[in-house]
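Hey, resending since the last one bounced:
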Amino acid sequence: MSSHNAARFDEPPVTGGAKRTRHTLLIAALGLLAVALVLGVMALARPPAPVAEGGAPLDLERSQVVRGDLVENVRVQGTLGHGAPRDMGTTLEGTVTATPAPGTVVSAGDELFRVDDKPVVLMKGKLPAWRGFSEGMADGNDVLQLEQSLASLGFFHLTPDTKFTPVTKTAVKYWQKSLGMKQDGTIEHGRVVFSAKDVRIQEAKAKAGAAAGPEVVTVTGVEKEVQVFLNTSQQSLAKKGSKVKVSLPGGATEHGTVRSVGIPVEKEGSDGATRKIPVTVVLNKEKAVADLQDVPVGVQFTQAKAKDVVQVPVSALLAQPGGGFAVEVSDGANVKLVSVKPGVFANGLVEVTSGDLKAGDTVVVAK
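The structure tokens again:
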């Protein structure tokens, strides 16, 4: 039996006073890191490795020291669906005569709904339609969007620009002919609705027979996506393009990618309104969630807390009299105490910033 093991074998039971002393020492030692205070209590609860009668070490649980990135996994709840809904309508006066069925995907050039039995058409563009179109109108980016859409539909054959020219008027006439409308080369305000992307009809807000207005249909995005709202303290977790894991109902897990991170918004919760960061995640395999809509899912974000560091389980730490920490290193037959200095904690592991410890060593951990 080594002298170290013998000392551990003869150690008297810890009395209430001794426990208080060890507890005081632990609090002092953990003043360096707030999170280490909680995790260090776990380490304090583990007594030194016992030795069996006759000098042979008992069969203790052991773990191998590793070197690599220390990562933190944070799981939050999100909602799987087609994104936030929004309403679309028109400034045209008249009666709604038809709307697409829920689930219909409307692309540039497609009918969004009908007013007085004439189509209101979706066109591609970020700028909302704010006026009608006709020859002689002032130049503008809305004209550019219109010509770009007409070009994509095969009606405009020049390079799109911001000017409504006779060529534009001719293209509009051909477009009107394809829709069965009057071919006058002008487009009244409200006949086209611009959208940066294709939309999916969620529901009709105005049924056939209702007066046309700004809320005729409710639409969403076409892709399935997960909406997550993070606390402002978690902002570093989500970066555009970072990879996440999404836990689906039933236990399946799919991989996803952060598509966008928004600016903080006010969200109502059980404790009142708090500022949250909206995060949009798209799934790598959308077919895996084809039958799911508006369901809660779990989203796991991974963040590197430290790069290329030596790390051990938190439960391997032993608080030492007088302050500091140590771990028990085992070579299979003997156990020796090695002083260490803990660093960053994450996922039940702790970085070791100093001490005679290297990757491949075996340490004793609490069962």
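Residues 340 and 355 are 4 Å apart (CA to CA).

Sorry for the duplicate.
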